[in-house]
Amino acid sequence: MVESKSQVDNDDSSTAPVGRLPTQGDSTQLESLGFHSELQRTFSLPSIVGLCLCLMSTWEACAAVLVQGLASGGAPCLFYNFQLSIISFSGSLAIGASLGEIASIYPTAGGQYHWVTALAPARFRKPAGWVTGWISIGGLIALTSSPAFLGGLMTQGLITLNSDSYIGTRWQGMLLYWTFVFYAAAMNVWGHRALPTANLISGVLHGLFFLVTLIVLAAMSKKNTAHFVFAEAQNETGWSSSGVAWFVGMISSVYPLLGYDAACHLAEELPHASRNVPIAIIGSISINGILGLAFTLVLLFSSGPLENLLQSPTGFPFIQLYLDATKSHVGTTILTIFIIMMALAGAVAGLTSTSRTLWAFARDDATPFSNFLSTMKRNEQVPTRAIWTITALQILLGFIYLGSSTAFNAILSMAIIGMYLSYVLPILAMLLGGRSRLAKADYGPFKLSYTFGTFLNFCNASFGTEYELFKCRDCGMPIVSAGVVTGIPLAAVEYC
Q1: 26, 59, 112, 425: least CB-packed within 10 angstroms?
Q2: What's the rounded Cα separation, in Å, for the pair 94 and 86?
Q3: What gap in Å lies between CA 108 and CA 122, rounded to an integer?
Q4: What pLDDT score was predicted for residue 377?
């Protein structure tokens, strides 16, 4: 990997100062980091927040991980762990604050790999940045495939729900998956001028669909007892230890909160990026965290017997939950279409974010065919070649699903490992010397105090390392219905 153009070779391993002035524009700041502006800053803060909300799709993902959470410690595990996943010192808000501080210093499309390259000691910069870049891109490719895959299979599930004679096949699921992938590519290449507005509208719909679904479930479903929701633990994971089962449940609570790093990769298309990127990260986590917690609480009070949910012919237990609550195929279809629409928006948002990451990585000569991938024609305003490259890789994943759904699910589950690891590595670099080498003038508008920032980085890195080690193990027994993994969040597909 050629060292990031934002870095200066120093014998003392110090980080090159940003040299930021309060009156510097975004282009000047980007040039101080070693790049020149090629992308137009057409996104606003609200549109970036909308993009992150749709890519995370937290409350929608909570519906998908409900059964896995119930089996891994019961309703109390899912409820309390979701709270911890948001507000603890190792939760998403804490990680978002750590990443937001770094993004405020280095607001470039490269995101995590650029930060590691900037903060690591000089002798480790190239390999550390190169490894982080490929981990990030690999995780993002799998991550952005997940909404399209989920949308395709959910469409099949709705057809099954409304047609007793329909028997879904894998090749049909692949074609539906490709439909979502091509739509995302078309929006990013030919509809890119509408993306800021589209993401803003999608973010608003994300909230409106939440309200409608919440009201329907709260008003129409039979309610579980408070004891079931807050105190009745259960362990269906296959592990004898309740503590291990509880930790498996905690992993389920992490999935719906991934994807907020998308704001970082749009930094070169956002005005006042040093200020707005951290706001978008913290804002999207806060909004989706509140929606997700409220929706989880309603789901836990509304869920029926675990065995009944697993027997759904649609392959999606939450569709069965909707049907049990509404007693209406039409009502269930409408509520499910809400999630399918958000899956479509998430596929578009994910491709936008991933293509910018690949483009930036190629700009630093870290990929094969880097000149081809990083070159933008004069009449283009987006990295079209990177977009089509990511799309081609997503299409190839469809062939893997055609051959083996288990193999496809296993590949998509790498998104969880890859994304979380890409969050931990720059925080670890900041903790292990990066903060001590930064001068006061190097920081952006979003700055943590030295003591609190170090403490937060330590908590993030410690929990993240433990999480990655645990996640790479056989973390329980598979929960499978109709050949479809039931723990499918919008952000990723978990095959536990």
Answers
A1: 26
A2: 8
A3: 20
A4: 81
Average pLDDT, the chain: 84
**Distance (Å, whole) CA 454 – CA 460:** 10
Of the given ranges (141-150, 190-199, 264-273, 293-302), which has the lowest mean pLDDT?
A: 141-150
Helix or strand run (H / E) with residue 342: helix 329-363
Residue 470's pLDDT is: 66
Question: 331 CB contacts (<8 Å, ≥6 apart)?
Answer: 216, 322
pLDDT reading at 491 higher than 60: no
CA distance 43 to 60: 25
Please give the average per-residue pLDDT across 295-307, as a whole number.
87
**Which residues lie below 8 Å from residue 482, measured CB to CB, with a gap of 6+?**
312, 313, 314, 315
In this prediction, residues 10-38 reach a mean pLDDT of 55
Phi and psi based region of residue 277 (left: phi greater than 0; alpha: psi -120 to 50; beta: remaining): alpha
Q: Chain centroid to CA 275: how far?
A: 21
pLDDT in the model for residue 446: 94
CATH topology of domain 41-485: Amino acid/polyamine transporter I (1.20.1740)
Helix, strand and coil in the chain, % to nearest 5:
70, 0, 30
Single-letter code of the amino acid located at 445: P
Residue 276 to residue 45: CA distance in whole angstroms:
6
330-343 core/surface letters (b: 16 or more CB in 10 A; e: else): eebbbbbebbbbbb
Tokens 């279409």, located at residue:
337
Supply the DSSP symbol for 267: G
385 Cβ contact list (under 8 Å, min separation 6): 359, 372, 373, 375, 376
Whole-model pTM: value is 0.88
- Give the CA angle between residues 269, 275, 281 to the nearest 5°: 80
pLDDT in tens, 412-464: 667 778 888 999 999 999 998 888 888 888 899 999 999 999 999 999 888 77
Predicted pLDDT of residue 13? 36
- Residue tagged 């930094």 (tokens): 267
For residues 195, 197, 202, 207, the Cα torsion angle rounded to the nearest 10 degrees is 150
Instruction: Return the structure tokens found at 420.
Output: 């979380």
- With H, G, I as helix, E, B as strand and everything else as coil, classify residue 136: helix
